[in-house]
Amino acid sequence: MMNANNVGPQPMQLRFSVDEYYRMIELGLISDYEKAEIIEGELIKKVTIGDRHAAAVNFLNRYFTKNVPDYVMVSTQNPLRMSDYNEPEPDIVLADLTKYDGKRHPRPAEVSLSLKSPTLVCNTTAMSNSLFTQQPKFQKFG
Q1: Which of 4, 114, 117, 124 is the most core-located residue (most Cβ within 10 A)?
Q2: pLDDT tens sequence for the chain (142 residues)
Q3: What's the number of domains the chain is made of?
């Protein structure tokens, strides 16, 4: 019988760096990696992109592509390396090509705008609930 002094195994949360995450993918330890992003060292399942979200991202992509100077790259739903333990996939990133060479995921100093808006995502209760748990983590990055 278990008592307060004799506690059984407790779940442990594992934290991974972005580099460790990519290494696990290379080794075949993670196979469903396209459905997750890494936030604060945790693998966070990405929400399904609904019609309204896709339409909003497509509109913004088209708008920015037509209206930003040639030295700005418009990137949609691609990784943005925020730190060693954070690589979200914003809906839109405007990368300054005078600072960014395009050979890796951009870093914050190379980005003019990063947009991951909850208003683009919240179509269903399930998506709203998923985003509700993720939103504080994403807000940390502005």
Answers
A1: 114
A2: 555 567 778 888 889 999 999 999 899 988 876 788 899 999 888 888 889 889 999 999 999 999 999 999 999 999 999 999 999 999 999 999 999 998 999 999 999 999 886 644 433 333 344 444 444 444 454 4
A3: 1
Cα(123)–Cα(109) distance, rounded to whole angstroms?
32
Count the Cβ atoms, other than its own, within 10 Å of residue 139.
10
Would you say residue 7 lies in a domain? no
pTM of the model: 0.72
CA count, 13 A, side-chain hemisphere, 12: 5
Examine residue 1 and state whether it is found in any structural domain, yes or no: no
**What are the Cα distances from residue 61, in Å, to 2, 52, 55, 91, 121?**
58, 14, 10, 9, 16
Report which residue type is found at 7: V
Distance CA 77, CA 75 (A): 7
SS3 41: coil
Task: Note whether residue 6 is domain-resident.
Answer: no
User: Residue 14 carries which side chain, given as an amino acid letter?
Assistant: L
* CA atoms of 86 and 107, how far apart (whole Å): 11
Tell me the residue range of the domain where 76 lies. Answer: 18-119+126-139
Token pair 């502005």 is found at 142
